[in-house]
Amino acid sequence: MKKLAFITFYIFFILSSISCVNHNIQTPEDKILLTLMNKRLEVAPLVAKSKWNTKTPIDDPGREKIILDSVQAKAHKLGVNEDLARSFFQAQFEAGKIIQRKLHEKWKIQNQPAFDPAPDLATKVRPVLDSLTPLLLIELRKMKIGASHNQSMKKLSSDARKMINPSFDSQVVKTAIKPLESYFKK
After folding, report:
1. Greatest alpha-carbon span in the chain
2. Which of 9, 113, 156, 169 maximizes the CB count within 10 A of its CB?
3. CATH (domain of 125)
């Protein structure tokens, strides 16, 4: 029971924490979207711990396809560009896997034993990720192509670096925001 309480508290803490860095985001949509992206990325270490304990591969193309198909259908219903939604979520998966791979490499070198406690991926971690999906789609819907937003996109990289947990390297940040930069450069 203590383990469950710890895991629940840990997940809540991660999701409720927001960086104390001074933010200079041009639009509220950017700030909310980047905050949600950060919250999703901050779950990656929990996924890594769970997969470390169960020796589950980091890549799960079958599950990713199911999620991406679902995201695409939800995007269509919400009026979000389906290609943007799919590429955005694929990028979030890739950014999370970068974090997981780096942790697994570190743990392998350290001969890390199984974590105790480690969250259950199916019952504790995935529901958190699933709860962020519709919120991210809503924020994507708010983003519009236009002159003023194109200007905001120029700041996206620096804003993302300010908003996303500094323990995640620039490769993670660049991977996560690349679909946004590409889409809004059109």
Report:
1. 54
2. 156
3. 1.20.59.10
Candidates 3, 92, 4, 107; CA nearest to 48 is 107
Please report the sign of the dihedral spanned by the C-alpha atoms of residue 46, residue 59, residue 172, residue 145: negative
* In contact, 140 and 85? CB cutoff 8 Å: yes
49: CB partners within 8 A, 6+ apart: 103, 115, 118, 119
For 114-161, how does the pLDDT look when each residue is reduced to its tens digit (9 = 90+)?
A: 999 888 999 999 999 999 999 999 999 987 655 455 556 667 888 899
Q: Which two tokens stand for residue 41?
A: 């990325």
Q: 147 or 1: which carries more pLDDT confidence?
A: 1
Instruction: Please report where in the chains the tokens 């809540």 appear, as a residue.
Output: 12
Please report how many Cα atoms fall inside a 13 Å half-sphere around the Cα of residue 125, on the Cβ side.
17
Task: Provide the domain count of the chain.
Answer: 1
Inter-residue contact 32 to 176 (CB < 8 Å): no
- Is the bond into 117 cis (omega within 30 degrees of 0)? yes
> Could you list the residue range(s) of the whole structural domain that residue 135 is in?
2-184
In whole angstroms, give the CA distance from residue 106 to residue 59.
18
The larger pLDDT score, comparing residue 162 to residue 27, is at 162
And the tokens for 176?
Answer: 């996560």
